[in-house]
Amino acid sequence: MYLKLTIIFCAIIVLLHIIDTTVGQAIGDDVAKQYGQIGGSVTLTCDNTDNGAVEWKLNDSKIIQTRNVELTRTKLILFNINVSQEGQYRCHNPESGKIYRTISLMLGYPPGKPQVTCQSVRYPLNVVCLWKLENQTYLPTRTTALYRYGVEDLKQCSTAEELQGTCTIEGIQLFSKISYTVKVTATNPLGSRSTITQFIVEKIIKPDPPTEVNISPIPNQPKKLLLQWKPPVTWPDPNLFLLKYRIMYWPKGSTRYQMIEINDQTSYILSGLRSRAVYFVKVAAKDFVDNGMFSDWSPTVSARLWSN
């Protein structure tokens, strides 16, 4: 009986030792993050505090020295790294299994300069600046945008939660020769790049395309078509801030087109057309006093001329 109790007691002690060792390694096995540039070199350092032997593993596969891999007692140096070398690195004692350090290596590129475009689609209410990066970074990259009017203090752009990558400037100054300045900065763990853009509001007006464009034959008019449309829905007040329109039209099968411009109207009769032909038409809009630029073209519509 005494011998049985002794054996049980010893087994409990061994079990407690195993549990204590396992928990201790798990608690001490913190994962550090490190970043590297694809095509460059990275040095990973092992916290070998007890001067024991060191072995490196990537995702549980042993790492050996090669032309692009250098191993020292405390460091792993990777040259000309590529995406296949991204992952979790561990340096540990190959005899005891003790883990000295775990490093999560993430690879990518520093951000390029943001490419910024600013336009006033909803003139005179606001200006919206959009941007994209020159390159894909493959790393978490954050962008910030600041603006100012003239020499005023820099202000944070207002950006809706669902419109990341945009900067909206409200309460814009109209008919001013003083420039706005917008600074967009992209930052990730490998670096930071900025772009500074300046503009005068009236020079960047660009309406959205006209809507509800429709073309139809006119009864008893074999050489005329009626074209109708509506101002862009995003243009706040077409009765106060007037628009002019550009019309492009051409007959089916032709590579030549005709273009006309008209002011402040939303219908037009195309005349002198080929009898019984099918014509294609699209419309663009611009600020009435010729500020800024024309919108993109509306979707193309078509109709056949009236015939008996």
From TrEMBL:
<dbReference type="Pfam" id="PF24031">
    <property type="entry name" value="FN3_IL27B_N"/>
</dbReference>
<dbReference type="InterPro" id="IPR036179">
    <property type="entry name" value="Ig-like_dom_sf"/>
</dbReference>
<dbReference type="InterPro" id="IPR003598">
    <property type="entry name" value="Ig_sub2"/>
</dbReference>
<dbReference type="Pfam" id="PF00041">
    <property type="entry name" value="fn3"/>
</dbReference>
<dbReference type="GO" id="GO:0004896">
    <property type="term" value="F:cytokine receptor activity"/>
</dbReference>
<dbReference type="GO" id="GO:0016020">
    <property type="term" value="C:membrane"/>
</dbReference>
<dbReference type="InterPro" id="IPR013783">
    <property type="entry name" value="Ig-like_fold"/>
</dbReference>
<keyword id="KW-0325">Glycoprotein</keyword>
<dbReference type="InterPro" id="IPR053073">
    <property type="entry name" value="IL11/IL27_subunit_beta"/>
</dbReference>
<keyword id="KW-0393">Immunoglobulin domain</keyword>
<dbReference type="InterPro" id="IPR003961">
    <property type="entry name" value="FN3_dom"/>
</dbReference>
<protein>
    <recommendedName>
        <fullName>Fibronectin type-III domain-containing protein</fullName>
    </recommendedName>
</protein>
<dbReference type="InterPro" id="IPR036116">
    <property type="entry name" value="FN3_sf"/>
</dbReference>
<keyword id="KW-0732">Signal</keyword>
<keyword id="KW-0677">Repeat</keyword>
<dbReference type="InterPro" id="IPR056621">
    <property type="entry name" value="FN3_IL27B_N"/>
</dbReference>
<feature type="domain" description="Fibronectin type-III">
    <location>
        <begin position="209"/>
        <end position="308"/>
    </location>
</feature>
<feature type="signal peptide">
    <location>
        <begin position="1"/>
        <end position="24"/>
    </location>
</feature>
<dbReference type="InterPro" id="IPR003530">
    <property type="entry name" value="Hematopoietin_rcpt_L_F3_CS"/>
</dbReference>
<comment type="similarity">
    <text>Belongs to the type I cytokine receptor family. Type 3 subfamily.</text>
</comment>
